[in-house]
Write a structure and sequence with these properties.
Elements: H1 5-12, E1 25-31, E2 36-45, E3 48-57, H2 60-73, H3 78-82, H4 86-92, H5 101-122, H6 135-140
Antiparallel strand pairs: 1-2, 2-3
Helix pairs in contact: 1-2, 2-5, 4-5
Length: about 140
């Protein structure tokens, strides 16, 4: 399987790894059956994501997509983060093998799950769609 230099860089030197003490929102997606589990932590102030961290249990592509996704939303507004697609993550990584595209889907879903948790904590209705049953993963394993 061929990975881009950018994927390898984010896998070997992942950005924003860890947990946030007292996060504004936390989201976890994936399942043990597919082998990839992502947990995203967000710190949001004045509707801006001021910090984001992740913990991912999974393959190199899962770690790289988590790392890149955090880079893409850090400093952005909640509305901008909600627009992040798995395609944008793949593009920023300069491509992923087709069998690993589901990792980018998980990264998008982890961000949305963390934002949904944030919305719940502040009493705001969740006005976006959440998917986290890992359908993509089941097709590949």
């Amino acid at each position: 399987m061929q990975y881009s230099d950018k994927v390898m860089d984010h896998f070997t030197h992942p950005r924003n790894v860890g947990e946030i003490e007292d996060p504004s929102g936390v989201g976890q997606v994936g399942n043990a059956k597919c082998g990839d589990i992502m947990k995203m932590y967000l710190k949001i102030e004045d509707d801006v994501i001021v910090d984001v961290k992740f913990k991912t249990f999974g393959c190199g592509a899962a770690i790289a997509t988590s790392s890149m996704a955090t880079e893409l939303i850090k400093g952005k507004t909640v509305a901008e983060a909600l627009k992040l697609t798995n395609s944008a993550v793949v593009e920023a990584l300069e491509g992923l093998p087709p069998v690993k595209i589901h990792c980018s889907v998980l990264a998008e879903e982890a961000i949305k799950a963390a934002l949904a948790d944030y919305y719940t904590r502040i009493g705001r209705p969740i006005d976006f769609e959440l998917e986290s049953d890992c359908k993509e993963c089941e097709a590949h394993h």
